[in-house]
């Protein structure tokens, strides 16, 4: 991973990194990704990907809304709380 | 001071409080005094509020005085990993990005502990967002191993493990994504259980990697671990992975005879030369004790073991990059104001530590266009094969036995500059979570230098009660001193 690629990934991840951080992470991530190449040794042709523990069957229930006891307390945690809303910088010009 | 028989057993404390032989307040004062004396050395806790602890204990005493004596944890102090939400009590995930956050609700497991009469004694340190194997990635400084304070307690639930080993609480909760309950339990000489995926609700556990995260009980001995497991396990509609028929601890092995006829799988891959000689020799003694108890050893191969680490780290970083997107300054935590939204996100997210940033970068990369198939999808395919490999193994044996970690606790700073070396700490603990399987670490001896060594039992899904029963019988045969340390060592 070179500096340009690291900068691009940081942007996608909404991370603002300094030049020295970018250089350090690019080097470390290159080493880690190199180690991960080991997975190429495993034959996986035709194997269905397991995004969850293979054995788990998620139980289903009715999708019914249940009110949270104190929504105002949740909103109040924000540094940008404005009544029932979260205030953020302008998004659309 | 509590009598020794109480200080080494949560079950004995609950029984004594129930019978009126000791007040919950006396128990709380005992542990608070130990924390005040020794936690400046061990640094297990991020937050302890003695007045609140005493108030909780007094409420338990009032409950007992009214004749309300049900509750498995009456008056028992429980240390809580700081990635579990506690109502009105700081919950930081050891991250600067959650500094000052006080959740308006309790995690499911915290509700259950309160309902059972337990006393929340404090919030314990961890690697930031549970990302690490030593607590050195905490945003608030590393915890120390009470058996040698120049060494790490393991991680990420290192504060919880250190708290139990140092006698700051007889029970603790941790969370285990790739070994974060079992590895610190092994390094601190206590018991740590990662239950079957879905056994314990994660409602109120701050998400790290959702297809792997599990809450796990930690204790001085197997009986206590089973006691806490039974309090916190069970269905909860607020976690969609919570099992309607969740596994329970059963009798925690009180019945005995768990070893008679038991088929114990011994994978060749768990005996490699990369494992410390003392760890190997100690495990061989455990195998001999099991055989003496009537178990049969079944030689096995789990050839995908060395591939679990890259698989695990690709899955975990991909899921973390998504889960941690919520920490952007909008809804909670500090906010760094800026002119536009993206600048605000970026400025606020500077508060993440290096390992968190590294993992978010890695996960974002693995999920990004052009790399998804080569990294993330490939890892999910290997994950499926690891699950199949375990299924084949459990057709031949009932449990798998091996070391929890390749070495005893390592010195602080030894691996902190080398992410790959730190990741390799999880070599024996990462496979079970990938397959959703239960696994348990229990103390099986010490190195010549006095450092604890842990043995790990893994079983098929829902075999939690059996793992606890087998561990309990082996614990009895090992006959180690499982008391908490009188004082931290090596200071």
Structure characteristics:
heterodimer; A: 93 residues; mainly alpha; Histone, subunit A; two-stranded antiparallel sheet; 2 strands; B: 491 residues; alpha/beta; Amidase signature (AS) enzymes; 16 helices; 11 strands; 38% helix; globular
Structure characterization notes:
The complex is a heterodimer of chains A (93) and B (491). Chain A has a domain at 3-41: Histone, subunit A, CATH 1.10.20. Helices cover 37% and strands 4% of the residues of chain A. Chain A has helices spanning 3-12, 19-36, 71-76, and strands at 81-82, 85-86. Chain A has a two-stranded antiparallel ribbon. In chain A, a hairpin with a 2-residue loop joins strand 1 (81-82) and strand 2 (85-86). In chain A, helix 1 (3-12) packs across helix 2 (19-36). Chain A starts with a helix and ends in a 7-residue tail after the last strand. The mean pLDDT of chain A is 90. With 491 residues, chain B is of the alpha/beta class. Chain B has helices at 4-7, 10-18, 24-42, 50-65, 108-115, 158-165, 182-188, 222-232, 277-292, 308-323, 341-348, 354-367, 373-396, 419-423, 431-435, 464-478; strands spanning 45-47, 77-81, 119-124, 171-176, 191-194, 214-219, 263-267, 296-300, 399-403, 439-446, 452-458. Chain B has an 11-stranded mixed beta sheet with strand order 1-3-2-4-6-5-10-11-9-7-8, sandwiched between helices. The longest helix of chain B is centred in the last third of the chain and has 24 residues, at 373-396. Chain B is globular, with a radius of gyration of 21 Å. The relative contact order of chain B is 0.14.
Number of helices of chain B: 16
Percent of residues of chain A in beta strands? under 5%
Helix content of chain B: 25-40%
Strand portion of chain B: 5-15%
C-alpha geometry of chain A: flat
* Biggest sheet statistics of chain A: 2 strands, antiparallel
Mean residue pLDDT of chain B: 96
Strand order of the largest sheet of chain A: 1-2
> Which secondary-structure class do the elements of chain A indicate?
mainly alpha
